[in-house]
Amino acid sequence: YGEKGVELSTPENFEAVSGMGISCTVKGKSVLIGNRKLMKLNETSIPPEIENEMSVIEHQAKTAMLCSVDGRVVGVIGVSDRPRDNAELVVKHLKKKGILIWLVTGDNVNTAKSIASSVGIDNVFAEVLPADKKIKVEELQSLGHTVAMIGDGINDSPALAQADVGIAIGAGTQIAIEAADIVLMSSDLKDVVTALDISERTYNRIKWNFVWAFGYNTLAIPIAAGVFYPIFKLSLPPWVAGMAMALSSVSVISSSLLLRACYKPCLLYTSPSPRDS
Question: What is d(CA 88, CA 95) in angstroms, rounded to the nearest whole number?
Answer without folding.
Answer: 11
